């Protein structure tokens, strides 16, 4: 027993448990054909341009990367029509969540978020001494913005809004989110996590970037891990008021975004074709899954992402175990407060079909 005690809040949290890695399941089952539909990665990989850029970068591996990713920042600022001083890059957008809590939270500051949403908000808040205030969702896996407004107190410092939300896949209407932001006092940061921005297929979506000047407490987070297929390289970014960027630059690890990530992200911004085909195939996959769920009489949340949450009417744990035996990795909902639902990443045509036939088999056991 080690008697060196960590900070007391470490007792409240546990290690992040990701979807099982493919390699781990292969070792456990002794099988080679495993499909992963658990972590919302791009099933079509990454742009070939990104792969070329990574290869070209190998010769400079011994040099530290530039600390603010200036070349990428220049290109992305132009692309998003924002100023370069509004952008900051992280070792995944996960790291930017941590930079925000580390930089802005004082002991016992309250941070409002939905329940259920992306787990890293809560973990980072606790580590940095804040108090997570979790507001239950409405029917259909939707943010309850009225209840979140009501949860604001003197101690509120930050609000996380995951839009589209992970794990439910749902979005908030543009009008509703704008009304919410208008009501938040200007000393409270509103962080809109848009990790699945490129998958949204609705015009009724809040254009966060258009409101950054009017609401300097507003922050958008995006990532190269999802549609761009660079999850293993770890690169995401935040768009916010330059004064917030300046504070985060003081607290961030200097060499947080490695050379391969910077080069690959820069290159893949040019591959419109890869983005377009991924969107199209994801849409087709979503329609296929929705039709199959209807045929099987299963209800699901309306999704604007590359994953979908479906109610199996069975214990999610059982479904998860049975799918694992068949070499399919998904995310069971019982740990997220949805005991009979599972979250499935929309895969390739083959993967979706294998998943549906396995699910149908399991449901009829
Ligand atoms: C995947 C995901 C992220 C983290 O992405 P990284 O850039 O890989 O750290 C952040 N927010 C949500 C909601 C996600 O699903």
Automatic annotation (TrEMBL):
The keyword Oxidoreductase does not apply. GO terms for biological process: L-histidine biosynthetic process. Its cofactor is pyridoxal 5'-phosphate. Pathway: Amino-acid biosynthesis; L-histidine biosynthesis; L-histidine from 5-phospho-alpha-D-ribose 1-diphosphate: step 7/9. Keywords: Amino-acid biosynthesis, Aminotransferase, Histidine biosynthesis, Pyridoxal phosphate, Transferase. The modification N6-(pyridoxal phosphate)lysine is found at residue 226. InterPro entries: Aminotransferase_I/II_large, HisP_aminotrans, HistidinolP_aminotransfase, PyrdxlP-dep_Trfase, PyrdxlP-dep_Trfase_major, PyrdxlP-dep_Trfase_small. This is Histidinol-phosphate aminotransferase. It comes from Geomicrobium halophilum. The gene is hisC.
């Amino acid at each position: 027993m080690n008697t060196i005690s960590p900070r007391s809040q470490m007792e409240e949290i546990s290690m992040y448990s990701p979807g099982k890695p493919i390699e781990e399941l292969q070792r456990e089952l002794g099988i080679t054909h495993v499909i992963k539909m658990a972590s919302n990665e791009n099933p079509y990989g990454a742009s070939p341009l990104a792969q070329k850029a990574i290869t070209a970068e190998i010769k400079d591996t011994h040099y530290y990367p530039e600390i603010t990713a200036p070349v990428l920042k220049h290109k992305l600022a132009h692309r998003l029509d924002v100023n370069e001083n509004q952008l900051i890059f992280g070792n995944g957008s996960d790291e930017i969540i941590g930079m925000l809590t580390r930089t802005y939270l004082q002991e016992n500051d309250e941070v409002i978020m939905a329940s259920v949403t992306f787990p890293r908000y809560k973990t980072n808040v606790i580590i940095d001494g804040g108090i997570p205030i979790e507001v239950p969702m409405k029917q259909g896996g939707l943010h309850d913005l009225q209840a979140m407004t009501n949860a604001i107190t003197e101690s509120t410092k930050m609000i996380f809004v995951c839009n589209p939300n992970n794990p439910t896949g749902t979005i908030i209407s543009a009008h509703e989110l704008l009304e919410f932001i208008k009501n938040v006092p200007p000393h409270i940061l509103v962080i809109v996590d848009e990790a699945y921005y490129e998958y949204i297929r609705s015009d009724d979506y809040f254009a966060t970037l258009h409101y950054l000047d009017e609401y300097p407490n507003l922050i958008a987070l995006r990532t190269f891990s999802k549609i761009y297929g660079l999850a293993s390289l770890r690169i995401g970014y935040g768009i916010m008021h330059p004064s917030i960027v300046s504070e985060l630059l003081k607290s961030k690890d200097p060499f947080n975004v490695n050379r391969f990530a910077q080069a690959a992200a820069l290159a893949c911004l040019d591959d419109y074709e890869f983005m377009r085909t991924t969107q199209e195939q994801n849409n087709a996959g979503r329609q296929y899954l929705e039709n199959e769920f209807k045929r099987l009489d299963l209800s699901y949340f309306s999704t604007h992402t590359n994953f979908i949450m479906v109610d199996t009417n069975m214990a999610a744990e059982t479904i998860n175990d049975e799918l694992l035996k068949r070499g399919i990795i998904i995310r069971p909902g019982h740990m997220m407060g949805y005991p009979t639902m599972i979250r499935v990443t929309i895969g390739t045509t083959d993967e979706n079909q294998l998943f549906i036939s396995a699910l149908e088999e399991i449901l009829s056991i």
